[in-house]
């Protein structure tokens, strides 16, 4: 009985992981870079604001320091950050392929705004607008549970081509 249960749990975990991998490519906006060219490793070095308070802006990447992952090019502010990313890209890349975490909880894919972020359980989540951040933060555990269940049902072609409202991206700096 225990072996069957352990096997079933392992199979379910593998299926969930496989489903996540085929959810689609990373969202890329007009900058041509994932996360609008911000250095995704930099988020993990920033202090997080309390719930309800705006987050500090992440650091823009450089167009000369990049790495490819999940169908997109990511930019980094240093070679060290690029190397950290390459050591475990799934850890540093935003969840839901850079789509809005609350949008996924609501059953759809809309772009995530890289300046509206939160790290939860060592994972980076983005949201689309400041108002949406409020809905997301009102029940992060519940929204995460719902978004995780929804994510595996969303088709790769459902990715949004919509622009992030009222957002001016910081395209990677050339050096």
Uncertain spans, ≥5 residues at pLDDT below 50?
A: 1-22
From the spread of the alpha carbons, the general shape counts as globular
Structural class: alpha+beta
Main sheet strand line-up: 1-2
Work out the radius of gyration: 16 Å
The tally of domains stands at 1
Structural summary, described in words:
Helices cover about 35% and strands about 15% of the residues. It contains seven helices and four strands; from the N terminus they run ααββαααββαα. The protein has a two-stranded antiparallel sheet with strand order 1-2. It has a two-stranded antiparallel sheet with strand order 3-4. A hairpin with a 2-residue loop joins strand 1 (about 60-70) and strand 2 (about 70-75). Residues about 1-20 have low confidence and may be disordered. This is YHS domain-containing protein.
Features:
175 residues, alpha+beta, two-stranded antiparallel ribbon, two-stranded antiparallel sheet, 15% strand, globular, disordered N terminus, signal, YHS domain-containing protein
Record the SSE blueprint.
Layout: H1 2-21, H2 40-43, E1 62-69, E2 72-76, H3 79-87, H4 89-92, H5 101-105, E3 113-120, E4 123-127, H6 130-138, H7 140-151
Antiparallel strand pairs: 1-2, 3-4
What does this entry show, briefly?
This protein has 175 residues and is an alpha+beta fold. The chain has helices at 2-21, 40-43, 79-87, 89-92, 101-105, 130-138, 140-151, and strands spanning 62-69, 72-76, 113-120, 123-127.
